[in-house]
Amino acid sequence: MKKQTLCCIGHITLDKVVTPQSTVYMPGGTAYYCSYAMRHLNNTDYRLVTAVGESELNVVERMRNAGINVTALPSKHSVYFENIYGENQNDRTQRVLAKADPFTSQYLKEIEADIYHLGSLLADDFPVDVIRHLAGKGLVAVDSQGYLREVRNTRVYPVDWPEKKEALKYVHFLKVNEHEMEVLTGYDSVTEAARKLYEWGVKEVLLTFGSMGSVIFDGKTFHQIPAYEPAVITDATGCGDTYTIGYLYQRAAGASIEEAGHFAAAMSTLKIEKSGPFCGTEADILHCMRHAKEILPCFSL
After folding, report:
1. Fewest beta carbons less than 10 Å away: which of 89, 139, 201, 267?
2. Whole domain around residue 170: which residue ranges?
3. Could you tell me if residue 76 is inside a domain?
4. pLDDT at 25
5. What CATH number does the domain containing 129 carry?
6. How many CB atoms sit inside 10 A of residue 85's CB?
7. Contact at 8 Å (CB) between 36 and 277?
8. Is residue 19 part of a domain?
């Protein structure tokens, strides 16, 4: 199988979103948002590896028809999230009605890439031996959110990552938000949390804070990346995934940490302005970087 520059591995979800006004079914997940975002960037040397049940093979076919390079592994079920919202949008009940099979080293042995981005949705998606296996072939990127969500009888519970110290030895890029960094490290300080994650083995720690920007730590320098003010806030779903894939895309192309961080921030700003995955162009991203108002992180480092 041809070696890719960038490969995202993760489940595509079936999301059931229930509000007082309607019930909507839609695909989602890190793999979905990353793949559609990459479709709009100039470098197409990208592959998605996913595992879905038969019911979601139509989603895979639509992605292929859109020009996305997809390898679909068999799974008894697809991941099925149910999100029920009350009148207050902050009042959400989340359940997982079905889970896909975890990824295994055996399934991934033929997949070759320079960078593997693991889009974990639930704690058991990627066992440590999978991370170790992929790290022997390329650089591994991980979004921590899935490792901190455990399903018990369909309900989703926040948890720590029991194998984090073993796993993070093999992770080059780790993306966390302010809540996740505190759960993982016990620190609410940006500098202390970043240093602890670096100490555990992560080479580039991406700490994202939404509208307050982001900080990237490489063991020597804390790179403060501004957020760009959106023209309108429409849909924040997938913004973290968009940031991460934009950053990895730029790093794979040889950009510096600062350059990649600014690109990722602008890309996620454009995503929040519209519903669904990022659908802009690189020209749009560069225009945002030049003209949108910068909001600098307000952390004392």
Report:
1. 89
2. 2-11+27-70+111-293
3. no
4. 85
5. 3.40.1190.20
6. 16
7. yes
8. no
Query: What's the predicted TM-score (pTM) here?
Result: 0.93
Please check whether residue 227 is in contact with residue 295, taking contact to mean a CB–CB distance below 8 angstroms.
Answer: yes
Identify whether 89 is part of a domain: no
Q: Got the DSSP string for the chain?
A: -PPEEEEEEEPPEEEEEE-SS-EEEEEESHHHHHHHHHHTSS---EEEEEEE-GGGHHHHHHHHHTT--EEEEE-SS-EEEEEEE-SSTT-EEEEEEE-PPPP-TTTTTT--EEEEEEE--STTSS-HHHHHHHHTTSEEEEEGGGGGEEEETTEEEE---TTHHHHGGG-SEEEEEHHHHHHHHS--SHHHHHHHHHHTT-SEEEEE-GGG-EEEE-SS-EEEE-EE--S-----TTHHHHHHHHHHHHHHTT--HHHHHHHHHHHHHHHHTSSSS----HHHHHHHHHHSPEE------
Burial bucket for residue 137 (CB in 10 Å: 0-12, 13-18, 19+): middle
In order of 134, 201, 222, 234, the CA distances from 147 in angstroms are 17, 17, 25, 27
Number of other CB atoms surrounding residue 16 within 10 Å: 16
- The pLDDT tens digits of the residues spanning 256-268 come to 999 999 999 999 9
Total domain count, the chain: 1
Would you state the pLDDT for residue 300? 65
Mean pLDDT calculated for residue range 158-167: 94
Q: Are 4 and 46 in contact (CB under 8 A)?
A: yes
Residue 151 located in a structural domain: yes
